[in-house]
Specification:
single chain; Arginase, Chain A; about 10% strand
C-alpha cells in the first residue's frame, strides 16, 4: 500500500497574506479521497521528529532558537512569517512524515508527504517559508542508521534547493540534483552536485528535453539505492513566482519521467510536494494530484 503523510496541522493558517498557499495541504488529500485515488487507509499522521534526528543536519544553536521560539526578528523575516509554537510543531511533524515515508518507500516502492520539500532551510538558517529541511534530515537519518548506502535527491521545484545542497555538501554518499530557474529565488545559490539553471520562459519541450539528459546524468553519477523527489508545481506557466512556462501536461510528464526511472531501477522513492503559487488554487491542487495519480498507476 502507498502511504501518505498528512496531519491537520499541515493546513494550519499562517498570518494574513500567507494563508492562500496553505489551502492545498487540505485540498490535496480531500481531492484524492473524493475521486477514489486513495482511501483513508493510505493516510498516516506523523508524530513530531526528535531533537536527536534534527541535530544530524541542523546546528544546535539554530535548532535551540527554533525550539525556544527565540529566533531573532531578522531571522524570522528571512523565513517569511512570525515563528510560533504551532508552526514549529507543524514543521516537526512534516519532517517526521518524510522520515516515516522512507521506511514505507523501502517496503512499498514509493511514499508521499502532502507537505515537505522545505529545501531552503540550511544547517543554521531558515528561509523561504522553510524552518527545517525535511528531505536532508531524512537523508542523514538513513545514512546515520546505515539503512542506505547512497542517496539521490532530485529537486525539480522552480527554486534551487540551496539548503539541501549546503547541508549535504560534505556528505559524499548523498548526491543533490537541482533543476531550477536561474534568475529566481534564492538569489544566492549554493552548489549542488548537479545544478541545472534554466532561463525564464522555458516551456514544455525544451524543459523535458533538458530534464531527460540531466536525469540520466544524475542517476549515472549518484548510483543511488534510495531517491528523494521534490515535486514542486511552481514550474507551471500559471505560477505567480515561477517564471517558467510549463503546462500541466508537461508537469505530469516530468513526474512520470522521475517515477518511471525509479520504478525501472527498482529504487525506493520518497516524494515531498514543494512549492506551488498559481493564482487559481485548482491549478495547484490538480498538478500535485497528478503526481499521486501517476504513482498509483505505476506502483499501486
Amino acid at each position: 500500500m502507498i502511504r501518505i503523510a498528512w496531519h491537520p496541522l499541515y493546513a494550519h493558517p499562517l498570518p494574513e497574506g500567507h494563508r492562500f498557499p496553505m489551502l492545498k495541504y487540505e485540498l490535496i488529500p480531500g481531492q484524492l479521497l473524493h475521486e477514489g485515488t486513495i482511501t483513508s487507509q493510505n493516510l498516516f499522521s506523523p508524530e513530531p521528529v526528535s531533537e536527536e534526528i534534527i541535530l544530524l543536519s541542523h546546528e544546535k544553536a539554530y535548532w535551540e532558537q527554533l525550539r525556544d521560539l527565540t529566533l531573532s526578528a531578522k531571522d524570522q523575516r528571512r523565513i517569511g512569517f512570525p515563528l510560533n509554537a504551532q508552526l514549529l510543531e507543524r514543521e516537526l511533524r512534516i519532517t517526521q512524515g518524510t522520515i516515516d515515508g522512507v521506511h514505507f518507500a523501502i517496503d512499498n516502492g514509493i511514499a508521499f508527504n502532502v507537505a515537505g520539500g522545505t529545501h531552503h532551510a540550511g544547517s543554521n538558517w531558515g528561509e523561504g517559508f522553510c524552518l527545517l529541511n525535511d528531505q536532508a534530515i531524512a537523508a542523514n537519518y538513513l545514512l546515520n542508521k546505515k539503512l542506505i548506502n547512497r542517496i539521490l535527491i532530485i529537486d525539480l521545484d522552480v527554486h534551487q534547493g540551496n539548503g539541501t545542497a549546503e547541508i549535504l555538501q560534505n556528505e559524499p554518499r548523498a548526491f543533490t540534483f537541482s533543476m531550477h530557474g536561474e534568475k529566481n529565488f534564492p538569489f544566492k545559490k549554493e552548489v549542488s552536485n548537479l545544478d541545472v539553471p534554466l532561463d525564464d520562459g522555458i516551456a514544455d519541450d525544451e524543459y523535458l528535453s533538458i530534464l531527460n539528459v540531466n536525469l540520466k546524468k544524475a542517476f549515472e553519477m549518484a548510483k543511488p539505492d534510495f531517491v528523494f523527489y521534490l515535486s514542486g508545481v511552481d514550474v507551471l506557466s500559471t505560477d505567480k513566482l515561477g517564471k517558467l512556462a510549463l503546462s500541466k501536461v508537461a508537469c505530469k510528464e516530468r513526474d512520470r519521467m522521475v517515477l518511471q526511472a525509479c520504478k525501472d531501477k527498482n529504487l525506493p522513492l520518497q516524494v515531498s510536494m514543494g512549492g506551488g503559487y498559481s493564482a487559481d488554487i485548482r491549478d495547484i491542487v490538480d498538478a500535485h494530484c497528478n503526481t499521486y495519480r501517476l504513482a498509483f498507476d505505476l506502483f499501486g
